[in-house]
């Protein structure tokens, strides 16, 4: 029968009719085999030549039925085993999911802890940066104040010198006034 069917990637399987067969004549053995197949199909296996093939068919049918029975019994057991396997697989997957969930929660807690620590460190760094900048500002102000103090100390020295000079000049002025008043009498 395979010679009556064509198969192509572009076309679906279709049955060829007898008129669609190629014009070249097949070999004589192919003709006789085809004729025997057709006659067996039409006669239902009543010819003596086909009695052996019927025995083969019966034994093939018996083997096929035995195989199907074995497969059915195996699939029946397989279904029980597979349902057990599915249950075991489900339970193992469930326990694995639970362990993974707990690990995920732990990881999330650790992540939150690390983030809080990181924020604290960042704040400390900002504070130290602020402190260092404030320390620099304070140092500048201190230097400026120290300069002002040294300038004021120098002015104080000058003022004390000026006061002493002023007092000396007052004393000299008073002495001169006395001398002039004695001279004028």
Structural description of this entry:
By secondary structure, the chain is mostly helical. It is built from 2 helices and 2 strands; from the N terminus they run ββαα. A two-stranded antiparallel ribbon has the order 1-2. The radius of gyration is 61 Å and the shape is rod-shaped.
Summarize the structure.
This protein is mainly alpha-helical and 185 residues long. It is 81% helix and 2% strand. The chain has a two-stranded antiparallel sheet.
* Number of strand segments: 2
Helices and strands, in order, run as EEHH
Alpha-carbon Rg, integer? 61 Å
End-to-end separation = 173 Å
Largest sheet: 2 strands, antiparallel
Give the % helix.
over 70%
Show unreliable segments: 45-50
**Could you say which structural class the secondary elements and strand pairing correspond to?**
mainly alpha
What share of residues are in beta strands?
under 5%
Strand order, largest beta sheet:
1-2
Mean pLDDT: 78
- Sum up the overall morphology in one term: rod-shaped
* H/I helix tally: 2
